[in-house]
Amino acid sequence: MLSEALADQSNIQAFDDWYNNTEANQQYVVDLWLEPVGDTYIFASGNYFPLDGRGSETDTDTDGALRNFLFTTELHTSFQYKGGETFTFTGDDDVWVFVNGKLAVDLGGVHGVQSGTFDLDANAGEFGLEVDETYTLDLFHAERRAHGSNFRIETTLDFTGCGEILPGDVIK
């Protein structure tokens, strides 16, 4: 799935290694609580450093704090499509969101804060969505700059599955 989205990149193996358990990667499970605000669910952090304090801080941030940059976030969940839902990701650096195995948001590359929104109704046919059926949502994120880390999810999706913890993952 991710390999297809990044096929035009010059070194696909480097990207693929980011999201696979290898000796070079240490996996952690991080809880992302999406706060209900009316009919919307939001997780927002303008200071998203879930691995700070894990002993591999790499650079000093603009606020002077020693931070653990150069990390990835991977999220796998499911939702029941009811009609009318949207999903927005806002952040810096790479993010790819797949709905039903199809690329829905592509904010690849090292960049400042950007947003990508997916309207499920507008793309239902293209992505094979039918009302009252359950589909997957997969998010891949990478923090690659040594200053600032923004990570925001805003959605009207009502998630029905929260993924699974893989063998060897460390719960933070």
The shape is: globular
Radius of gyration: 16 Å
Could you name the CATH class? Mainly Beta
Query: Termini, distance in Å?
Result: 27 Å
Describe the biggest sheet?
5 strands, antiparallel
- Give the ordered list of helices and strands: HHEEEEEEEEEEHEEEE
Second-tier CATH architecture? Sandwich
Number of domains: 1
Mean pLDDT: 82
Provide a count of the helices.
3
CATH topology: Jelly Rolls
The stretches of 5 or more residues where confidence is low (pLDDT under 50) are: 1-12
Determine the structural class based on helices, strands and strand pairing.
mainly beta
Q: Helix share of residues?
A: under 10%
Strand content: 35-45%
Number of strands: 14
Outline:
This protein is mostly beta strands. It has helices at 2-5, 12-18, 120-123, and strands at residues 28-29, 35-37, 40-45, 59-60, 66-67, 71-80, 86-91, 94-99, 102-106, 114-119, 134-143, 151-155, 159-161, 170-171.
